[in-house]
Amino acid sequence: MSQLKALIFDVDGTLADTERDGHLVAFNMAFEEAGRDWHWSLELYGQLLAVTGGKERIRYYLNDFYSDERGEDFSSPVMTDAAFDDFVAGLHAAKTRFYMQLMADGAVPLRPGVVRFFKEARDAGLRMAIATTTTPANVTSLLTHTLGAESIDWFEVIAAGDIVPAKKPAPDIYDYVLEKMNLKADQCLAFEDSHNGLLSSCGADLKTIVTINDYTSDHDFSDAILVLSDLGEPNQPMTVLQGTCDEAYFNLATAQKIHQA
Ligand code: XBP
Ligand code: MG
To answer: Which is catalytic among the residues 10, 17, 175, 193?
Structure first.
């Protein structure tokens, strides 16, 4: 078995509860600014999360939910395909602007154990990377406003958004990171929070640790090596939901053990 060399992190839902407190809020702000009377509820957003990527999610809503709610199609016959693409891109650009403002306002903290574990990994000289479907600017704004601008350099590769054509659950984003880092899957561990994320990391043959959240607690994580409530802190123990781990919080020794198992 190879030595553990690198940790690859998903962002949304894994590092922070950005879906509920960041993306959903920003989507609704963008709809309002555009004069649309759409308001995605917490519950509807849970269904829309079946599709990753913000532009893809808007399309999914308009194609699969809007007509059921309103009894009419959104775009046809009023918009050409090109006009529809532009419309979605415009809404999404506004959503990204609102999201970045929310991050700058400190709306979303990092989840328990994340800062501690980053520090431990860095001190031990482990390489770190990010594999996410969200827009690159969203990643840098979350990191900058939670850990400081210098934290962007902690990650050797930040693979995000449209950098690969097929978003999660396709494995492409993890394959991209492995190629950029010149590493094999068995030299790394991945950290995810959702079924789509796990399909993606496992599709790239990565052993994966899942930390759940309110949107993903009922997902199928049978392919995960370990499923936790969160990474935990010495004074805030995690709950182990699947797999074996005797520690109160997820630390580097646990990571090494899991990697070797
Ligand atoms: C995260 C996503 C993202 C965000 C929206 O999935 O699906 O698309 O919800 O971000 P994962 P953008 O955590 O599995 O990577 O609007 O910037 O696309
Ligand atoms: Mg995620």
So the answer is: 10
